[in-house]
Amino acid sequence: MYAPERQQEILRLAQESGRVDVLSLAEEFQVTAETVRRDLKALDRAGLLRRVHGGAIPVGRLDFEPDLAERDAVAADEKDRIAQAALAELPSDGNVIIDAGTTTARLAAAVPVDATLTVVTHALPVAARLADHPGIALHLVGGRVRHRTRAAVDAWALGSYGEISADVVFLATNGFAPDSGLTTPDLAEAAVKRAVIKAARRVVLLADSGKFGQRHFARFGDLTDVDLLITDTGLSPDDARSIESRGTEVVRA
User: Fold this and answer.
1) Which residues pair with 50 in a beta bridge?
2) What's the CA gap between 59 and 194, in Å, rounded?
3) What is the pLDDT of residue 68?
4) In principle, which of 29, 55, 72, 80 could form an S-S bond with 21, CB 3.0–4.6 Å?
5) What is the pTM of this model?
């Protein structure tokens, strides 16, 4: 396959899924990662893609939001490692908020059977994973449910979180970066995320490295709002040190 043909296919994949990553493309086309990076650089120069950490997204689609199944399939191994590392942050006999997200849902699924916790969530996938847990006192926050994320938003959700003081929130995001902060495509989701940050004494962000450098339409916070970022080893040591210099602890699982 010639480079222009490969680049056209990369553009098609990016437009279909909302993002592409270097390693997956290298495997798909049986070329080196450096070849893929050159392709992405050429597409970026042409104004067709915007390069982000580890890959690229289509230009003009900063507010693109894949559905839940598509997002859950991205970086699955990394999300599992992040979820396992996050178990160490569960308080003993405490109360936590679990935000809507594919990595936070994996955390919910991994909560040990002998754990004793009060959990508050506005995410149906999280609630479904914890509903039968014998040691969990589960509180489901209501509101309008967004089909893309299966998460409750708007006034009911915001009002509920305004009455809560949790030990820790396990937060999800679509993008994070030192300059653009924490971002997500939807304004209603962003409002709930701001509310859960305010409702907890400690903020633990669970985000795979593919989200580093991504910027979406709605900003809901800054990395300085985060006490601990749990990510994967795809985040470079230099980027981790840059984040830590701003006061956020980083764990690369």
Assistant:
1) 57
2) 27
3) 60
4) 55
5) 0.75
* Residue 12, pLDDT score: 82
**pLDDT of 99-134, one tens digit each?**
999 999 999 999 999 999 999 999 999 999 999 999
| Helix/strand/coil (H/E/C) assignment for every residue in 128-192 | HHHCCCCCEEEEECCCEEECCCCEEECHHHHHHHCCCCECEEEECCCEEECCCEEEECCHHHHHH
What single DSSP character describes residue 230? E
- Count Cα neighbours of 98 within 13 Å in the Cβ-side half-sphere: 36
Positions of the chain with pLDDT lower than 50, given as ranges: 62
Strand 117-121 and strand 136-140: the pairing is: parallel
- Distance from first CA to last CA of the chain, Å, rounded? 36
Residue 151 token pair: 């998460």
**Cα dihedral 233→70→85→166 (10° resolution):** 130
Question: How many other CB atoms are found less than 10 A from the CB of residue 242?
Answer: 15
* Structure tokens belonging to residue 199: 């409702």
